[in-house]
Amino acid sequence: MTARIDKVITSGAFELDGGSWDVDNNVWIVGDDSECIVIDAGHEAAPILEAIGERTLLAVVSTHAHNDHVNAAAEVADAKQAPIWLHPDEAPLWQMTYPDRAPDGALAHGQVITVAGTDLQVLHTPGHAPGACCLHAPELGVVFSGDTLFNGGPGATGRSFSDYPTIVESISDKLLPLPPETRVLTGHGPETTIAAEAALRGEWADPGS
User: Fold this and answer.
1) Could you tell me if 11 and 22 are in contact, meaning their C-beta atoms sit under 8 angstroms apart?
2) What residues does each domain of the chain span?
3) Where does 4-203 sit in CATH, by number?
4) What is the pLDDT of residue 104?
5) How far apart are the C-alpha atoms of 45 and 82, rounded to whole Å?
């Protein structure tokens, strides 16, 4: 029996470079009736904890450390006595929200996270942020893309610690080779598929152009 995917939408502000933007975030919970992981605990701990219920929380996995993806991570993790995992290259962004607390574990490209008998492979996809990661679950036919790939193309760049040629390269090399039917479960907004986004690839500038 494979894991199921639950979705919680939380709301709050994304803050960076002196700006603030109201955003809704997709929080993904992957597991079964006994255990789960949370992908991107943003904004509001209460609805996330309600969705977890009495299950064992194996980890809070953060695709990147922009405040809107991690600002409920500590409260959720502490409530369930679970670790927070994040790619080490996210340290400068993480410290903006948690200057006195470090993540409990490091994500690495190729790492496999197993929950409810289902494997999720970590894909390091820098560009939106230096340590941005996606999680590919072949058995579920999904990739959790954080803010790397959206319905309509790459995630935002142009702010501190981001780079457009890098995100295009990450998507092209790490995500578009996934099976075309793979569902892309995004950090914000509606889902898409690898096939749908691959069809738009020609509209993106090539790295270095």
Assistant:
1) yes
2) 4-203
3) 3.60.15.10
4) 98
5) 14
One-character DSSP codes across the chain: ---EEEEEEEEEEEEETTEEEEEEEEEEEEE-SSEEEEE---S-HHHHHHHHTTSEEEEEE-S---HHHHTTHHHHHHHHT--EEE-GGGHHHHHHH-TT---SEE--TT-EEEETTEEEEEEE--SSSTT-EEEEEGGGTEEEEETTEETTEEPP-SSTT--HHHHHHHIIIIITTS-TT-EEEESSS--EEHHHHHTTGGGSPPTT-
Single-letter amino acid, residue 3: A
With cut-offs at 50, 70 and 90, classify the pLDDT of residue 2: confident
Q: Is this model's pTM higher than 0.90 or not?
A: yes
Say if residue 139's pLDDT is above 70.
yes
The number of residues in the chain equals 209
Is the pLDDT assigned to residue 164 strictly greater than 60? yes
pLDDT for the residue 12:
98
